[in-house]
Amino acid sequence: MGLSVVVASEPDVAALTRFLCDRMYPEMDLGFAPLDKSEALNTVYRLVSSGRVFLLQRDGSWIGALGLESRCMWWSRQDVLGDCFFYIMPEHRSGWAARMLVNAARKSATDAGLPLILGGFGSPRLSLLNRFFRLLGFWEIGSLYLWRQGNG
Predict the structure, then answer these.
(1) How far apart are CA 108 and CA 132, in angstroms?
(2) Which fold does the domain 3-135 belong to in CATH?
(3) Strand, coil or helix: what is 73?
(4) Any idea where the domains of the chain sit in the sequence?
(5) Mean pLDDT of 72-76
(6) Could you tell me the CA-to-CA distances from 17 to 13, 36, 70, 119 in Å, in that order?
(7) CB neighbours (10 Å) of residue 18?
(8) What residues pair up with 66 in beta bridges, in sequence order?
(9) Cα-flanking dihedrals φ and ψ of residue 80, to 5°?
(10) What burial letters (b/e) apply to 115-149, b meaning 16+ CB within 10 Å?
(11) Which of 82-96, 104-118, 121-135 has the lowest mean pLDDT?
């Protein structure tokens, strides 16, 4: 059967929340922002209700997910689509798998007439991620940095 992307629906919300909490959250290991499963469930529900959550499947089982939300930049009223989560299980990570999710996100942005901002953090492979996005026609518009008391 191979890889496919489907749009998440309301019956997927609880299982998708568990998938992200059990798989994605531990991998991020940011050392701040403790997991609040109730907040995670509410966020996943809100995004699924918008029709902008894409599930990557291999032979019918979820191996990844990308959830988009519409938001404005602080200086503008124009909406943009940005990712709330973008995750593929480590054993299934490949440019092709990620490209399928990104293509679904690009179609959603195109259909809505909105720019699309995607990114990643918490990954030890950020240089590969940057290269991947550039190959798909994205350009780098910034970086994220974390400071905590005790960092220096």
Answers:
(1) 20
(2) Aminopeptidase (3.40.630)
(3) coil
(4) 3-135
(5) 92
(6) 6, 11, 20, 20
(7) 14
(8) 54, 86
(9) -135, 155
(10) ebbbbbeeeeeeeebeebbeeeebeeeeeeeeeee
(11) 121-135
